[in-house]
Amino acid sequence: MVSRRVVLYAAIIFIFAFASRSIIFLRAVFPTGDAGQFASFVTEIELNGGWVPATNSLYYPGSTYIYPPLIFLGISSINLILGHLTQLPAYTAIYELFYLAITVSSIQAIFLAFYFKKFQNRVEFLLTAGLLILFDASLYELSWGGYPDIIATFFLIVMLYFVDQRGNNKRWLPYASIFFILIAYTHDLTYFYSLLVVAGIILFDAIKRNFRSAIMVLILLLVGGAAGAVWWVPRIHFIFGAATVSLSAGTGLISQVGNAAVLFQAVPFMIPILFLALVELFASFRSRHFEPLDSYSIALIASASGLFFLLYDPTLTGRMMLFSYTMLMIIVLKNLGIIRKSGIYRNLRIIRGKRLILCTVIFLIIMAPVQILFASNTVSYYNSGDFEYSPSLIQFGYTHFNNGTVLAPNIGTFISSQDNAKVIIYTGFVVGPLQLEERNAGLSIIIASTSNSSLYNITKYNISYIIVQSWLLNTTVDGHIVAFPSPYYQLAGIFDSYNVYKVRQV
């Protein structure tokens, strides 16, 4: 039976984790980044009567519905039921995804804190809980709407927890299999990474000649592989097509996020974990004792595969490095006792006895506002510029974007999810062949709005409205001046930082 103390600790961790992940959005108008795209996938299912459609009708119309649908299917099912009882606001799915990710991330903090507790003393548990609350990668991922990634990563962590028990009994296999299946239908990159991690564990067991364990993990790999095959084999053409798309081709002429900006946002919150990792490494060398490799260590090694894409696709490398950080955080916090056992701080009076608890509390009190400020600034970044949300534009679209297709930057994902409008988005990163075709056609219209090819694409894709950010007008892109002159276009309105043009003549 769970003790009251455990319940109390769990509640405290959850409350602080949930609060820290929510408070960073206080200055934000709305959850942006990829949030609108995921909400569009929910809308696509709702419009298809609760079934996953073969092709999108709103988001890049006609393109394959490619994203693993578990989360979107669940939310759309709930909304369809609630829709019979009351009229839901158009932005409901966005906040459902947002708070689902925050809740799962907070539960992850509880799960890991109590998993590590059996290896730690009171001070280490306190420090661990604080670091899980303030320095988890989800605080960065939430800022740009990485909701499926956050949820699938939690499933992966739990799956590896069960895999780590493979030497004790066979009961781990069904539980690990369930979470592998959940990963397969939640997030694409996490799923393919999970396949690599499980394959690495099989190889590790085989090298150690633990063939019985290797066979059991092989069964897990087959279960996860079969689950993913159900979704991906019918879409295998997409995988082969995506594998040939470079970052420059996928991003197109208008890049939303620079690599320098991403590094500046992502690196600061990693520093305490990286510092502890170096201290633990020094302590291990001093005591000449290294902890054996576990599933999380193998996952860390597997994440290094992202370095192979560094020159070809730095964005993919960055996403893989987030897995590296998460696995490193788990390894570091699990093995905090190495520092204590090595005695490297034994002669420092300031951290003896109860003073160590005081120092830990002071550190967390100081770092809490610092970390929240960093995360809040990242949220602000993804709520401005190319990612700015405009409620007035969404309201305008509700009554004007009903016929034809809208050509838009990133805010187009919110237009498709909230206005139920067909949208082609000409910014952001896409890899699907039809998405690239539509995106490139849209870019041709943006940079040369009166050319014969642009007028042809307007007719081909039934473009009725074009949305551009005000700063882009009269600038030069790929040797062309961005302009939408009469009589081809009519200015329909200016909404915050967006100019909306209605197509009048083609």
In short:
By secondary structure, the chain is of the alpha/beta class.
Could you characterize the architecture of this molecule?
The structure is a single chain. The chain is α/β, with parallel strands linked by helices and 506 residues long. The chain is 60% helix and 6% strand. It is built from 22 helices and seven strands. The chain has helices at 4-23, 35-47, 70-83, 92-117, 122-134, 138-141, 147-163, 172-184, 188-207, 211-232, 236-243, 247-251, 259-266, 271-287, 295-303, 314-334, 337-342, 354-381, 391-400, 412-418, 433-447, 452-460; strands at 405-408, 422-425, 463-469, 476-477, 480-481, 489-495, 498-503. A five-stranded mixed sheet has the order 2-1-3-7-6, sandwiched between helices. Strands 4-5 form a two-stranded antiparallel ribbon. α15 runs antiparallel to α16. It is globular, with a radius of gyration of 25 Å. The termini are far apart.
